[in-house]
Amino acid sequence: MLSDIGILGMNRRNADFTITRNPRKYYPLVDNKITTKELLESHGLPAPVLYFQIRHIFELKLLREITRLREFVIKPARGAAGRGILPIVDRVENKWKTSKGDLLTQEYVEYHISNILAGLYSLGGVDDDAFIEYYVRSHPVFNPISYHGVPDIRIILYMGIPVMAMLRLPTLKSGGKANLHQGAIGAGVSMQEGITLKGVYLGKLVDRHPDTGNSISGIRIPFWKTILEISAKTFNIFKLGYMGVDFVIDVLLGPLILELNARPGLNIQLANRDGLLTRLRGIDELMKSRCPEKLSPDERLEIFREMIKKIEGQYF
Amino acid sequence: MNRKVYISSAFLIVLTIGLITAKIIHGGQSVYPESGVGLWRVSFIMDITGTGSRAKVRLTLPRDTEGQIIYNENFESAEMVFYTRERAQTGNRIGFWRSELLDGSKSINYTFSVKSKGLTFTIPTYLSRSKDPLKSYPQELHSWLDPSKYIQSENVSIERYLSKIIKKEKSISVIVRKIFDFVRGEVKYQSEKGSKDAKTTLEKLVADCGGQARLFVAFSRAAGIPSRLVGGLILDHGVKKTTHVWAENYIGNKWIPFDVVNNHYASIPANYLILYRGDYVLLKYVGLSRFDYFISIGRERIPPVDQPWSLYALPIHFQNLVHVLLLLPIGAVVVAFFRVIVGIPTFGTFAPILLALAFREISLVPGIICVIVIVGLGWLLRSLLDYLKILIIPRLSIIVTMVIMMVLGIILVGLNMGHRQLLYITLFPIVIITWLIERFSVLQIEDGTLVAAQTAFGTTVVAIAAYYLMKVAFLKNYLFAFPELLLSFIAILLLLGRYNGIRITELWRFYKLQKILRKK
């Protein structure tokens, strides 16, 4: 049995974790990125700054009023798997320059946003809102192991306690996106120190980045402690017992929460060469008599350290 | 949580068993064979061949009478339209198979079970012959008094013979006895191709059952007694083509049977099955180049259900609809099993079920080929739409229209290249195909061609599995007899819904991880 050696399967994730621990009514908080961002801001947690939203076609004129702003990202609020994201890095005469170097006319950008509003990129094709936010420039420590795009760090939280993490690295195949299904690399991360381990690429175990050829292991993720502290605070806001939090590390602002996920995938186990279930059971044991809602973020991190001592201690 | 689910499933299974038991004990529905006498299973099997023209086959279907109960009717239409009509005057029930275009050979059949018993009547002796039968009998019996094409009751020689036979006799019971004895005594039996009419039978004094019965009816009518032919089948083990004809006279507000040939006077044996009344033919057809039929008769083991709340009480063509409805839960359980236990990805829950139903209509291999062709072409065209950046609702509408265009194209190709079975492609679930194309394209863009192809393959595999399970006859029959079994289906699905074990495909997905972890 795979569960005996701690591997979490899709059925158990659904039956025992997402359905049981994530009340449906809290899903909208993480499915809409604008709602997520507003909630994070109101609780003083860092996220890329929201410049403004576009909810109706007539608000497209806000875009024409931009005079100083040179760098920003246009995103759909309910976009799935990184679709519909348009990163703008400069203005050349009358045209917008994208991070890939294409020059787009004002009309094209407005057409793109009207598509977002009509739901072209949203889950299920429902009407959507567009928003314009701060353009994240990735921390240079990741430069040798990422190909275009911004790497992000996925932390799995169980009852607000960090369980497992991975660094997701864009590749040529993923087209700059940090989504494992689309061909990004997932590198495991040691929870104690935030140092990357080996990784997984398209379901295969790998040690090196396929595009740059550099080793993906042994990189110390900056601000690791801060990342753990911030993620432990998210549980009180979003109340999802089993969720994934995606961080990016901006070169100027440090760690920022990009989005949250109520159904995080299982490939993180391959990236870490370790099963989730061992850790989740470890937490269950430590939590036994305590009510997860009443714990403070510090107490959660305390449990986290005990759990890690138990789990990682026996391997390293 | 799990406890509650187990308790609910157990409750549902107990409920199923309880309801079925109650139905068996109180509802007269049996799952066990009965050593019953007079239970028969009859199949009319017709092989028809057409050459591309409009075709129609007509068969009179039996119905419940005093002596017989018809149940478990079933028909195979082989993609022809099937419907039934009732004739007001005779009370006959007629089934029609119709095809706008019949090309090649087909087998259609109609099967039913019958519980029949013998009846014996006594003819009241006090009734006397009516002087003016048209006045003394009500309007609806007049057609059984008037002469007809093959029953020439007003023919001079028939009337002359009648007065010789009955002389001055007035009592109906005596008259009928004399007519019966005359026909039985004077007319020799000889099997022949095409029965004689009443007049010729009297001239030749040699006839089969049809001629003899017609003569009996003609004499009875001439004597002022409403009389008619009855067509039917003598039930006996084996395969046969011959049907039987006898007569019925209306005496004392009752139709009383007389079979001259086999000497059944005012009685009908248990193995006589009534198919129609009147001078009628069992089978008729138009637009066929060849027609052949046989009747297969065997013993039935399960007695009829005298339960108005059973699905068997439904009219036969609705029963077929219900059969299709009952296939859906079977498909749903198959999909749930493959998704949860095996872990095969599919495009949603309904796509495999509806594909399996479509495969049932146009058979497996052509069905799969059509799906591949349509989804493949649709995906190419859908990619074009993606390039044009079309919004989702108009995009889906365009894909529906394109699917219809492809279906029309396949029909025209089939018509002109001589593959007429391709015409049945219109039975394909067009909406599901449209949705498959959309989901395939989205998945291909978001997760890559490999994942999309895997999911498409998974959908087909699950649909094939559902198709084969839907074909299992005993499952189909038991579900129809006991739709309470659906409660157990819910119980199974509840258990699947709380199954948190590893999916079989995950063994492969986590294979390397598993090896690493076992080493530690």
Q: How would you characterize the overall build of this protein?
A:
The complex is a heterodimer of chains A (316) and B (520). With 316 residues, chain A is α+β, with helices and mostly antiparallel strands. Chain A folds into two domains: 7-31 and 139-313, ATP-grasp fold, B domain (D-amino Acid Aminotransferase, Chain A, domain 1); 50-133, no CATH class. Helices cover 29% and strands 23% of the residues of chain A. Chain A has helices at 10-21, 27-31, 33-42, 61-64, 106-117, 224-238, 268-272, 276-287, 297-313, and strands spanning 50-54, 72-76, 86-92, 95-98, 103-104, 130-133, 152-158, 161-169, 185-189, 196-201, 204-206, 242-250, 254-261. In chain A, α8 (276-287) crosses α9 (297-313). Chain A is globular. The mean pLDDT of chain A is 88. Chain B is of the alpha+beta class. The longest helix of chain B is centred in the middle third of the chain and has 27 residues, at 316-342. The A-B interface holds A 1-3, 5-7, 9-12, 14-16, 20, 80-81, 83, 111, 115, 118-120, 125, 181-183, 203, 205, 269-270, 273-275, 315 and B 1, 340, 343, 389, 391-393, 446-448, 451, 497-503, 506-507, 509-510, 512-514, 516-518, 520.
